[in-house]
Amino acid sequence: MTKYGVIVGSIRKNSFSQTLANGLVAGLPKDAEVTFIEIANLPLYNQDYDADSPAEYTRFREQVAAQDAIIFATPEHNRSVPAALKNALDVASRPWGENIWAGKPALVASQSLSGISGALANHILRQSLTFLDMPTMQQPEVYIANSSELLGETGEVANASTAEFLKSVTQEFVTFTNKFVK
């Protein structure tokens, strides 16, 4: 059984990114173990905490370490990733030399209310994941534009063809993950 961690870049209740994540998880095998890993409660990363980390850091690092693969679903904030998501990346990659992310296959999916579909956030996140030594699935790419129409705020994907697309992406991610997880 493969363990999939899901990180939602938006910390807003009923976010479109949460719905995007739910749509991706729907395509995972029935025996997959899925853990949504919360990032909203993480204090801002501070190198001063490396010697004595806050309990939230320790708990988060343990949750990430327990996963075989990670699914990221993110909005775009000011042409980049949300601050909470960047903070989560930093927390689990520090102290220097203790990068918890390394070697975990990753799927990146972005969404936006506009037609730009979070493309910049998607690629900025991919750059960080490259540095963090996470093999990241390259194809198919997931950019969801007009998320209020396609995803909705109910927690379930509102558009049937979008839901099918997300399930097919996740099935590709399972195949990708199996190349790295034994």
UniProtKB/TrEMBL annotation:
Domain of life, per the record? Answer: Bacteria
Q: What class of enzyme is it?
A: oxidoreductase
* Annotated Pfam families: FMN_red
Q: SUPFAM superfamilies per the record? A: Flavoproteins (SSF52218)
Question: Where would I find the NADPH-dependent FMN reductase-like domain in this sequence?
Answer: 3-147
List, alphabetically, the GO terms of the cellular component aspect: cytosol
Write the Enzyme Commission number(s) for this entry: 1.6.5.2
For this UniProt record, the keywords arranged alphabetically read as follows: Oxidoreductase
Q: Give a yes or no for keyword DNA-binding in this entry.
A: no
GO terms of molecular function: FMN binding; NAD(P)H dehydrogenase (quinone) activity
Q: Give the matching Gene3D superfamilies.
A: 3.40.50.360
Q: Which PANTHER family match?
A: CHROMATE REDUCTASE, NAD(P)H-DEPENDENT FMN REDUCTASE LOT6
Q: What is this protein called?
A: Chromate reductase
Provide the organism lineage as a comma list: Bacteria, Bacillati, Bacillota, Bacilli, Lactobacillales
